[in-house]
Amino acid sequence: MPLLxxxxxxxxxxxxxxxxGVVLILLVAYVLYQQFLHPLxxxxxxxxxxxxxxxxxxxxxxxxxxxxxxxxxxxYGEFVRYGPDKLSxxxxxxxxxxxxxxxxxxxxxxxYDAFGGKTPNVFGMRSDDRHAVRRRHMSHGxxxxxxxxxxxxxxxxxxxxxxxxxxxxxxxxxxxxxxxLHYYTIDVLGELAFSHSFGVQxxxxxxxxxxxxxxxxxxxxxxxxxxxxxxxxxWLPLVxxxxxxxxxxxxxxxxxxxxxxxxxRLGQVxxxxxxxxxxxLTRLIQAENPxxxxxxxxxxxEAEAFGFxxxxxxxxSATTALLFCNLLRNPEALAAxxxxxxxxxxxxxxxxxxxxxxxxxxxxxxxxxxxxxxFRLTPVFSMPLERHVTEPEGVFISGRHIQQxxxxxxxxxxxxxxxxxWGDDHDVFDPSRWDDDATATRARYLxxxxxxxxxxxxxxxxLSNVYKLAATLLREFEFEIANAEERQAxxxxxxxxxxxxxxxxxxxxxxGPLMVTAKAAGRNxxxxxxxxxxxxxxxxxxxxxxxxxxxxxxxxxxSQDMMDGCTPDCNRSPNQATPSLPSExxxxxxxxxxxx
Length: 596
What we know:
By secondary structure, this protein is α+β, with helices and mostly antiparallel strands. It has helices at 12-37, 47-51, 54-61, 65-76, 94-100, 128-138, 144-149, 151-171, 177-194, 200-203, 213-224, 226-232, 242-272, 280-286, 298-312, 315-328, 331-344, 357-363, 365-377, 412-415, 419-422, 437-440, 459-476, 484-491, 539-548, 556-563, 584-593, and strands at residues 79-83, 86-89, 175-176, 385-388, 395-397, 400-402, 407-410, 477-481, 502-504, 508-510, 515-520.
């Protein structure tokens, strides 16, 4: 017999066929186990998702992960298996169990390791003990008293934004409000975190700050398949793929900028002593470990500065852009919101360039309801917030038992569109829903900032920014959708129950620009159009801006762009010089030229 004579494996083709057969048997066995014997076998979901985390990787790469997950919940119900060991839940009982009462029983998973370097920041820390200490280090810098202490820096940047929009309003030209809001938040982040404006609003050049979206996409993709990507982590940057190389390059640039910001601020604090300007990073530099009295080492400061750049330059602008998009698509809500702001707040002027956070909190309940509804309908932080089930007995959620070792998660977008929680009109932008007491009590379930001890530490700052921006812009301008067909559709209710088209890398955003037109609000129309606050930059001012920075790069065409209310890069040719980053003192000198 061939077997006894040792001839069975003499042929390469026979050996290959045998190996293929073994692999096939193992594969079939694996599929059968995952489908019928695995602890999550009884939960519905895509077949591929039950077999491999590659399904979730692919969903992130399509930029539609949370929206696909929402559709799966619409199809299958409140429990969806989205990975071999992962369960997405939209039952409202899951929120307090996992995130509020769960605490140490539901620690973060390996997913979060992908969002930082060797030293995790407060977002990526999986150790509850380390996280608690770090949060105590940082809490003062993000407190409401600290935010209000720095509010005048917000006001100065709001003034620049108003100036930019006023230029477009005077000329009657459409513009991308989403881009202007993004420029604003970049500069505000620099001011509040590092006492250093990046100068993006003045220069119109967002390349002055590295892109953070590629980092978030890289973290989401690699975090979704940790068992494989952690093994390949050191080799992935070497893969000769342009898209992959761009992701790693963007992350490296953010890391470099974070290091530079820390180095500069450490030097300034050392030089200026007690007379330094307070900011978030400085408070972190000076904070002491509550148990040991030690200060954070530089590597931890850089990790947190990295987190400031990632969290602070996208989420606020995307949230505010979505708020205006939802208002513009719902003219009745926009009119009610504008009327409340106009009736409740005084006119703005040079001494009061922006509405205060206190004014919004005290006088604008409808605007606050609009902001809350915006968070519910189109949450920006949309990745599933994964947690391990660690208790030996597992956990019961809505009568369903989930065993130890499994991963449970709530995806904000999917949960915020669960009709059993929010009603059949969950896709409708309706701020008045919060007037209902039963609905208002569900506000505690909203997950846009996370919940419990892991709730976003920047919540107060983010809300203050959104409130201030929305109130000020609605007080000063009347906005309309630039596209005539879309404007008419909005007027006849054509967008009711239809969400804006969005993309997500784990953090969501509008897909494409938010093109609008603006004009001075009714009570501002009689203002002097040549008000110093709204007058445009002329060629002399723009040349001064660049000359004082050591680089005379302003050309006549660039200056004219600024005079027309356009950012310098709107019409810049590829070979035309980019305006250099203004220094801090220069930026303040420039602000003075607007008010003298």
